[in-house]
Design goal:
The protein has a domain at 3-46 and 78-107: Rossmann fold. Helices cover 50% and strands 15% of the residues. A four-stranded mixed sheet has the order 1-2-3-4. The chain is built from six helices and four strands, in the order H-H-E-H-E-H-E-H-H-E. Strand 1 (29-30), helix 3 and strand 2 (42-46) form a beta-alpha-beta unit. It is an alpha/beta fold.
């Protein structure tokens, strides 16, 4: 387990009751960048820019004559971690500095 994953797990364990209650309101985490922007605590998702760039490369290859069946299936390898500190403060949570430093974006 990576350090970030271990830190997120530690936060979840420490604040389990709050997170369970808040999960019903869908403010704990989201798998889309817009989730943190909309008020969710944490968003850990694939990088949409990378996904669209790779999709354009596939389209380019197909338009140049490649058969879609011959193209390899790919998975995202680049992910984004977005933390909403405004939500964390509202919940009374302190996000560790080590996690904030790893975040791609921190919403104040």
């Amino acid at each position: 387990m990576s350090t970030s994953a271990a830190t997120l797990r530690a936060i979840a364990v420490r604040h389990h009751d709050k997170l369970v209650a808040l999960r019903k309101e869908n403010v704990t985490r989201m798998a889309q960048p817009s989730g943190a922007e909309a008020g969710n605590l944490i968003s850990f998702c694939f990088d949409l820019n990378e996904v669209f760039r790779r999709a354009a490369e596939y389209v380019d290859r197909i338009l140049k004559g490649a058969k879609p069946a011959d193209l390899a299936v790919e998975q995202s390898t680049k992910f984004q971690l977005i933390i909403n500190l405004k939500t964390a403060r509202a919940l009374g949570l302190t996000i560790p500095q080590s996690l904030l430093l790893r975040a791609d974006e921190v919403i104040e």
